[in-house]
Amino acid sequence: MTKKILILPGDGIGQEVTSSAQEVLDYLMVENALDFSVTHMDVGGTAYEKHGSPLPADVLAEAKASDAILFGAVGAPQWDDLDWDHRPEQALLGLRKELELFANLRPAFLFNELASASPIKNHIIENLDILIVRELTGGIYFGEPRGLVTSESPHYAFNTMIYNEDEIRRIAKVAFEAAQKRNGKLCSVEKANVLEVSKFWRSIVSDMAKDYPDVELSHQLADNTAMQLVLNPNQYDVIVASNLFGDILSDIAATLSGSIGMLPSASLNSTSQGMYEPCHGSAPDIAGQNIANPIAMIASLAMALKYSLNEAKLAERIDNAIKTFIANGHRTKDISTDNNSLNTSEVAPLIIEILQNDSAN
Ligand code: NAD
């Protein structure tokens, strides 16, 4: 049956990096005669300018009908003052919510050749390989009530951090199962010392541990994890955290690996439907300059092939091609240590060349 892929480039470098991923996808579709249909639509600020909404209804409908969504990035300063419902980020939050993409998988790994691009000493980050499982559709980003009150003095604003038992169990299940397939270690992160919701989170995850005797479970306070990720990241295998803590910790982990431009992510629901996006944003500071690193987006395509499109072998070939690309010394500006760097548009053709060679051998 035809698999449906929806490409949503979004704003800023989202446009540039999705175009690179599409080149790789086009190549693989021809090479393997894949029965995929590919559609492009606007989201974010770009969609707001053209259609008056960051997530137009037809885009949402198409997303719901797709097997995999390749999402670039959204946002830019010119839209920062729009009212909440029109802000580009609503596209992302809306898709996560509407498609119930509750499990965000964010691998953080280091290509040892890039250790010098990391701000952390080499011996600390060598062989870094962590998976952060972040809850994506609940917690404080969606909790009600929320608001800004200006009718009282002093003015105030508030949000609600809330998780029910089912939400905690379904994300913890993803994390326990991921740990089983990796090195059997799971660290659950919260702030059980100060937050009721965290204490509840800890008790549920602890209760589930008996069903996973092969997984070594630990608990850690989020502030400590932020510090430990920098001091000794190799102590972790899989980390599971709420929406807020996972957001912060995965960006720290991304920095360890040298550039946020290298790291993909997958957001999955309870079917195999998923949205795949780089961990980075729309990078307005470098947008339109053809210097963004598209590897995170290309690696996100690999995750889509693996988790939603039933093409795990092709996913592995892309991952290997990226390793070869780095081993061959190819660098975009963000990971280059000299003045010799590739433009965004030069990356996909080199990855395709490596894929062509591996299929010929
Ligand atoms: P950002 O990730 O866009 O950029 C942070 C820094 O990393 C910048 O210096 C940028 O140039 C660099 N960078 C990011 N991706 C890169 C790449 N592929 N290659 C080379 N360098 C790269 O984060 P920000 O600056 O905090 O946010 C910019 C905009 O993006 C904001 O509007 C924000 O809301 C939005 N944002 C969107 C998403 C998303 O769509 N998923 C995620 C984060 C931020």
Describe this structure in words.
The structure is a single chain. This protein has helices at 13-31, 44-51, 57-64, 89-98, 122-125, 165-181, 196-208, 222-231, 243-256, 295-307, 312-327, 344-360; strands at 3-10, 36-40, 68-73, 103-109, 129-135, 147-149, 156-158, 185-190, 216-221, 238-241, 264-268, 274-278. A 10-stranded mixed beta sheet has the order 2-1-3-12-11-4-5-10-8-9, sandwiched between helices. A two-stranded antiparallel ribbon has the order 6-7. The model has no long low-confidence stretch (mean pLDDT 95). It folds into 2 domains: 1-102 and 270-361, 3-Layer(aba) Sandwich (Isopropylmalate Dehydrogenase); 129-256, Isopropylmalate Dehydrogenase (3-Layer(aba) Sandwich), CATH 3.40.718.10. It is built from 12 helices and 12 strands.
CATH architecture of the largest domain: 3-Layer(aba) Sandwich
CATH topology tier name of the largest domain: Isopropylmalate Dehydrogenase
Low-confidence stretches: none
Please state the average pLDDT score: 95
CATH class of the largest domain: Alpha Beta
Instruction: Give me the secondary-structure category.
Output: alpha/beta
Gyration radius (Cα, Å) is 20 Å
Provide the list of bound ligands, each named once: nicotinamide-adenine-dinucleotide
The total number of structural domains is 2
SSE string, helices as H and strands as E: EHEHHEHEHEEEHEHEHEHEEHHH
Largest sheet properties: 10 strands, mixed
